[in-house]
Structures are given as C-alpha cells and as structure tokens.
Amino acid sequence: MKNLLKRPSLLSSGFLRRFRKDERGISMVEFALISPALLSMYLGAIVATHMEHASTAVGKVTGTVADIIAQSPVVDRSIIDGAFAAGEAMMSQQYADDLEIVLTGVIVEPVPGDNSNNPQRRGRVAWTASHQRVSLAKPSRGQTYPLPDWATKRNGFYVVAKGRLKQTPLYGDYFNVGGDGKMTYNYENIFVPRSSLETECSNC
Question: pTM of the entire structure?
C-alpha cells in the first residue's frame, strides 16, 4: 500500500525533471534561431554609427576649407594647399588618405542674352583647384556651374568646396554594400567671401 502511494510522486518527479530538460533544450533552440537576427541588428548599429561619423567628418572638412579661402580677397595655390592640409588634419588617418576635395570659385551673373529687368542667372567657374588625386569631376574655367536656386537670386561670388570620401564600412563584406563594397559620402559647402566681393586665385 505504501509503495502504491509513493508511485505517483515518483512519476511526477521524473516528469518534472524531463520537463526541465526539455525546457532548457527549447530555450537553446530559440536562442539559436534568433541569434543571427540579434547579431545583424548589433552590427547594423555599429555600421550606421560609422557612416554617420564619416559623413559628418566630410561636411566639417569641406566647410573648413571653403571658409579659410573665403576669408581672403586673393589666394594662390600655396594658400589653398594650406587649407587642404588644415582640413586633412581634422580627420583621422583612416579617412584622410581617401578624402577628395575640389575647390571652385563661382561667379553668379546673368545668363548671356537675357537683357530683361529680372534676368535669369547662372554660375560660371572663375577658378578651380583640387586636393591630391580626385575622381570628382573638376570643372573648367568658364564652364557653367550648377548652383542651388537660392544662390542665383542675385549677382555675386561663391567659394564652393565639394568633398567625397569612399570607404569600405565596418563589416562591409557582411552587408555587401555597393558594387565595390564601398560607401560614398558626398558633401558640398558654399561660402560667400568675407572681406571682399570676390575671392580671386592668382595661379589656379
């Protein structure tokens, strides 16, 4: 009689042990299923932070270069090269070697042949200079230069700095971004001359 009374408790104890083992096994399977998604989210957050940092860096450098040049009524290649060097020094070495900058002086003037009281205006390249080797299109002197609408409302002059950075992001192979596995960051800064109506370059 005593054995019969004990048997259900033994069965219950064995069942609970098996249930606990099964529960641990199920948890391991669930973790194995969701771990790739968690890893992707983690790596994605790291890559997004890296991309934002790179884009911000390009914007700051091009802005600094354009601002330095816009402060002088007349510049030459040595001054421009110094501005490029100052901008490059702002970036960490992992970005500096791949940074491309094209600096352009742009005159805003009426479109030739438009003699109306409120003529349409265009940008025309007065001079241009580039930093190291560039794959960015470098405009020619006298060429029409595209500017945003707000910049062509009246005659004037602008110093424009275009920057480009092509970099393989962290875990670029994992995410397979771009045809060559690289991300391209483009930035353009437009500055008005500070101390004169126009910034000239004597030997660009």
Answer: 0.71
State the Cα–Cα distance between residues 84 and 101, nearest whole angstrom.
8
**Is 166 domain-assigned?**
yes
φ/ψ of 121, rounded to 5, equals: -120, 160
Q: What is the pLDDT of residues 126-177, one digit of tens each?
A: 999 998 777 788 899 999 999 999 999 999 999 999 998 887 766 555 555 5
Q: Is residue 133 part of a domain?
A: yes
Listing DSSP states for 154-177 in one string gives: SSEEEEEEEEEEEE--TTHHHHT-
Question: What pairs with residue 105 in β-bridges?
Answer: 127, 159
- Output the six-digit token pair for 183: 């991300």
Parent domain of 80: 32-201
